[in-house]
Amino acid sequence: MKSNGFERVGQAFIVVLLLVLCVSIIYPFLYMLAISLNTGADAAKGGVYLWPRSFTWINYEIVLGNSVIRHAYLITISRTVLGTVGGLAVTMLAAYGLSYKQLPFRNGILMYVLLTMLFSGGLIPYYIQLYNLGLTNTFWVYVIPGLFSAWNMFVMQKFIQGIPEALIESAELDGAGPFRILFQIIVPLSKPMLAALGLFTAVGHWNDWFSGAFYVSKQNLIPVQTFLQQLLTAQDLSAVMSSNQNQEALARSSLSNITLMSIKMATVMISALPILAVYPFLQKYFVKGVMVGSVKG
């Protein structure tokens, strides 16, 4: 079917709009990359937009040479892996159990879970609860409170309920128990949904600076995003000039070539690139996961 003039104009408008949105998203990233690869003194003069004018690795050497940042990365990676895997496991088990209509008190449990989505006790009661549980100033404050997500559970439950009942009934007739059905039928069929929810959960853990800023006071337990937040509000370079490797890097470059802004941009790039690298590997599952439920088979 041939498209008329109005349709072609509409398609052209959509393409232009998407290009503008892409540029508005990509340009800040390229600008930060250019500043991070440029000497600080030269970048302070202005005029660096898409490509470094005075190329250098010194900003990254200083950031990666900081033992505090390296340890913060270890905390962030550990909490992201443990929090994502644990969160998906708890979400899957809860959704799988509540997908059985014969489960006793099922409606009451679902209503109770729904209430946690609509109402919150507030920050102070939440902090008191974490303190009474002994989670404050520990690594597990990043993992345990986020193991269960009501929203993820409801999404996963609806997905499981969409699996043909005949498939599960045939497995039960063959003598399969609940756990065998879960691991041999439900989990393999749920890979797209698990990938989508896992990506959202991992990004949430990776980008979380709030927990490290308010629930942890020990510097050796802060994640990289909390360190970045502290660095962005800093007024001097003392936060990244402490280690021996930093001193060696400074010996090869005068202090006047380094600015707080260039260090900030390098830290932002280092904290953003790892999670961005995950997207291509999960893209095929991610697209399938977000489309689940959009059309009926």
UniProtKB/TrEMBL annotation:
It is found in: Cell membrane. Its main location: membrane. It is a multi-pass membrane protein. Signal peptide: none annotated. Residues 69-282 form the ABC transmembrane type-1 domain. The chain crosses the membrane at residues 12-34, 72-97, 109-128, 140-160, 258-282. GO terms for biological process: transmembrane transport. One of its GO terms (cellular component) is plasma membrane. Keywords: Cell membrane, Membrane, Transmembrane, Transmembrane helix, Transport. Gene3D superfamilies: MetI-like (1.10.3720.10). CDD domains: TM_PBP2. PANTHER family: ABC TRANSPORTER PERMEASE PROTEIN MG189-RELATED-RELATED (PTHR43744), POLYGALACTURONAN_RHAMNOGALACTURONAN TRANSPORT SYSTEM PERMEASE PROTEIN YTCP (PTHR43744:SF9). Belongs to the binding-protein-dependent transport system permease family. This is ABC transporter permease. It comes from Paenibacillus oryzisoli.
